Amino acid sequence: MASAITSPLELVAELGLDPGLVSAATAAGGTFRLRVPRSYVARIRHGDPNDPLLRQVLPIGAELADAADYTADPLGERAALRAPGLLQKYHGRALLITTSACAVHCRYCFRREFPYAEQTSESSRWRVALDEIARDTSIEEVILSGGDPLSLSDSRLASLTDAIQRIPHVRRLRVHTRQPVVLPSRVDEGLTQWLTQLRLPVVFVLHVNHPNEIDADVRAACALLHDSGVMLLNQTVLLQGVNDDASVLADLSRKLFEAGVLPYYLHVLDRVRGAAHFDVPEESARAIAGQLAAQMPGYLVPRLAREIYGAPAKVTLSPSFPG
Fold it and tell me: 3-class SS at 220?
């Protein structure tokens, strides 16, 4: 993480791109900075400004354009706070914002303006959040999120999960992470040792948007996680110019399955300020989902879904099939 590229000038030079991209990238990255690991950059096509991986990480001028209905908090997360760093939107599970740190800054991130300084559940704040979970016996699943929870050291992860496992009504642990994909070296002996010592069933929800993100190192990281007893699922965000094509998504499902990961959700874009240029209209999204379902077995077809503030669960959108 320390060696990640954070300068648009450096990224453009590294990939042999037009230097004219730097000015807009610098302006758009003023409030939500560029950050991308070198291992991820190595998967981006040299000299291609439209590479689907590059589009996810390079700031562009379109982020500065105003768009109706695109806000700083599109999912109403501030209203869902139960304690510092503890979110609960749905019955039976609660989410801990474990850290603000991410290995990569995805330009469509719905938490790009999240007030981490106020809400991150670090140090003594974990105790307040865990006390709240312990008081509510309806919570049977704890979700570690962020930022990226794997940005924490193995010892801090162990300290947190030891405390969670002492809560008798918690039955499952879920980890939402992109690090095994963008920084697969994070899945090392220390991390797998932590996982094998957990008594709770563990689910990792990865975040892969394009088949080109999956290389040999990512497959090796997934194998280590699988061998540590972790169930691996994937969620994808449907992004214009990245994966808004059924054939791309079908290839992604194949590559995920070969890596031991099952497709889980295909998310319609959360309307966060600065990401409107990624939007795929719902009618188009349903048609793409229908094309995908028509060519893949059901277990390789993620559920098309949108998160709506105040709904009791994610809203599943039915695929549309050609007449």
Answer: helix
